Amino acid sequence: MAVTYRDAGVDIDAGEKFVEDIKPLVQATLRPEVVGSLGGFSGMFALGGGRFDDPLLVASTDGVGTKLKIAHAVGRHDTVGIDLVAMCVNDIVVTGAEPLFFLDYFATGKLDAGPARAVVAGIAEGCKQAGCALLGGETAEMPGFYGGGSYDLAGFGVGVVERARVLGSHRVQAGDVLLGLASSGLHSNGYSLVRRVLATDDPQVLQSTPAGLEVPLGEELLRPTRIYVKVVLDMIRSCDVHALAHITGGGLPGNLPRVLPERLAVEVDAGSWPVAPVFGLLQDAAGIDEHEMLRTVNLGVGMVAVVTPACAEKARQVADRQGIPCWPIGRVVQRGAGGGPFGPAFVLGTPASGTG
Q1: Number of H helices and number of E strands within the chain?
Q2: Which domain holds residue 198?
Q3: Same domain, 216 and 322
């Protein structure tokens, strides 16, 4: 008896129909540099026209992690696509690069067009927020590998920056001000801890609204990662920005030192920015101290701009115009010989010590 590919769990017709269904979503993200259309073996993007003198391509890849388990438990799939784009383009823009295009990989045991389309709609929305084109992607049915309607996501982004304008540790100087840009919540990090201590496998828990939150827990945990591309590029055009740090896993202590030369450190003023209630909820449930929280999640700061003191206020005004809260949270200092709980490159001070 013949066994078809469909009998084995892969429906080619459904896959082709899905590609046709998402074409309008992809078309809405395209930039003038995109060559060709969705459905080819690869995507093409024209980089030229005399716009750049010495361009560098900047690439990043990432996923959403176990936050996907929350999406499955809640039955909402339109936000994790934004997370996927955000985790890549926020890493790209810290170099000063403009994100150009994005590709996604969606793998599942059996293609369910409803959730899959919602995921791609979120990816398209993320691309529009970042100003980059959704150039293509891959949808893979893998029966026997993924079960229960589950899926996994990966994303790949590419940007461009002039070599002479690359941001980073080579520009950072003692006395520079640290400006913290507000996160939208947990973003896409710390969810293994979240799921363990907040009992998120229970639908009733996700539908409840814990004290301090304004929305049900499931909705709070699915808030999409903020995309900082437009505000950061506007800051770079308007101000003297030396470096940027995307605050992901490892928190402020794990990410700020990555943009420092060896001779310098950052002094961060504890309590100099507001912390959303969801972080307190997580800390209380986990029973961990503030130091452990600081190195686990973003604690309300999703991106840090390292700027000259003279342009700090102007940079804050740029963020304010785009509706993103922004606070001076510390400064760059000479690195001392000793080291605190986070090492010699990260010093946790107090608000009373000033902001430079």
Answers
A1: 12, 12
A2: 177-353
A3: yes
Claim to verify: residue 161 and residue 269 sit in the same structural domain: no
CA separation, residue 355 to residues 2, 178, 268 (Å): 73, 8, 9
Q: How many domains does the chain have?
A: 2
- How many whole angstroms separate alpha carbon 113 and alpha carbon 122? 14
Verify that 349 and 230 share a domain, yes or no: yes
- pLDDT value, residue 337: 72
| Final residue in a domain of this structure, among 121, 140, 165 | 165
Buried b (16+ CB within 10 A) or exposed e, 3-19: eeeeeeebbeebeeebe
- pLDDT recorded at residue 43: 86
From 222, 268, 207, select the one nearest 69 (Cα to Cα).
222
* CB neighbours of residue 154 within 10 Å: 17
Are 147 and 61 within one domain?
Answer: yes
The residue whose two tokens read 């529009």 is 128
In contact, 128 and 28? CB cutoff 8 Å: yes
Place of tokens 């589950």: 150
pLDDT reported for residue 44: 87
Both 202 and 253 in one domain: the answer is yes
Q: Which of 20, 2, 3, 26 is nearest to 143 (CA)?
A: 3
Q: Which amino acid is at 76?
A: R
Which pLDDT does position 41 carry in this prediction? 80
CATH code of residue 72? 3.30.1330.10
CA pair distance 290, 93, nearest whole angstrom: 29
Cβ-based neighbour number of residue 208 at 10 Å = 12
The pLDDT value given to residue 355? 40
User: pTM for this one?
Assistant: 0.93
| Nearest-angstrom CA–CA distance, 305 and 283 | 26
Tell which residue, 147, 315, 343, 317, has the closest CA to residue 242: 315
Domain boundary among 165, 185, 213: 165
- Assess if residue 3 is contained within a domain: no
Scored b (16 or more CB within 10 A) or e, 194-207 reads: bbebbebeeeeebe
Residues of the chain below pLDDT 50: 352-356
Tokens representing residue 193 in the block: 């801890």
